[in-house]
Amino acid sequence: MSQQQWNSVDDYFTDLLAPADEALAAALRDSDAAGLPRISVSPSQGKLLQLLARTQGARRILEIGTLGGYSTIWLARALPADGRLITLEYKQEHAQVARGNLARAGLDKLTEVRVGPALDSLAALGAEHAENPAPFDLVFIDADKVNNPHYVEWSLKLTRPGSLIVLDNVVRGGAVTDAADPDPNVRGTRAALDLMARHPELEATAIQTVGIKGYDGFALARVRD
Q1: Is the pLDDT of residue 1 over 80?
Q2: This model's pTM is above 0.90
Q3: Percent of the chain with pLDDT over 90
Q4: Residues 6+ positions from 83 with CB-CB distance below 8 Å
Q5: What is the mean pLDDT of the chain?
Q6: Is 44 within 8 Å of 52 (Cβ atoms)?
Q7: Which pLDDT score is estimated for 64?
């Protein structure tokens, strides 16, 4: 199978099952215009996140890694009218684009973009959680890969039994199988997967994917009851 065939199949699935509307298309256009890297989830992946959140009956969602807010829109659309999504973004310029995209989509009242190093934002969330426990029903991790194990650890602290944790970009072009690979992104991803595998409070799996994003995949974990 070639990349062209993968793209054709992805395009077919997208047109049939996850067609873009103006808010989603504009989010990608504005992200491109602002010079953001083209690393947002694909439409089919965005629809999968939305379906997971809806199946979960999610009322509170945490996203680690906002970029231009494209995946945020998919996730936030799964929330009820009184739901809440908090998304963490390192760069102020990315957060500004995301806020505009979320407002255009009519989701600014449901969402909050917090800016700064994600580990600092997570620590602040942890302090808030200690005072007023309100666990997240779903966490989507799509930020710097070096800190993936820390993001999984924080996700456990901020969720409840039955919550879902989705970790994106786990295949690393196949390099994830190489324990000797010095790439910090590979090492961080492997550490997060090892944590998911051995943690007594998690049951997890990982799936390889191909498509317009090339060869990649994601891990899905559920907090045990």
Answers
A1: no
A2: yes
A3: 99
A4: 58, 59, 60, 61, 76, 110
A5: 97
A6: no
A7: 99
At residue 56, the pLDDT reads 98
Place of tokens 């910090």: 184
Full 3-state SS string of the chain:
CCHHHHHHHHHHHHHHHCCCCHHHHHHHHHHHHCCCCCCCCCHHHHHHHHHHHHHHCCCEEEEECCCCCHHHHHHHCCCCCCCEEEEEECCHHHHHHHHHHHHHCCCCCCEEEEECCHHHHHHHHHHHHHHCCCCEEEEEECCCHHHHHHHHHHHHHCEEEEEEEEEECCCHHHHHHCCCCCCHHHHHHHHHHHHHHHCCCEEEEEEEECCCCCCEEEEEEEECC
Alpha carbon separation from 121 to 113, 193, 199, 210 (Å, rounded): 11, 22, 23, 32
Q: How far is CA 142 from CA 3, 12, 19, 92, 130, in A?
A: 23, 25, 23, 17, 25
**How many Å apart are CA 184 and CA 62, to the nearest integer?**
24
The token duo for 156 is 């456990």
Mean of pLDDT values over 57-77: 98
Rounded distance between C-alpha atoms, residue 111 and residue 83, angstroms: 9
pLDDT in tens, 170-186: 999 999 999 999 999 99
Confidence of residue 91 (pLDDT cuts 50, 70, 90): very high
The order of strands in the sheet holding 60-64 is: 111-115, 84-89, 60-64, 136-141, 159-168, 216-223, 202-209
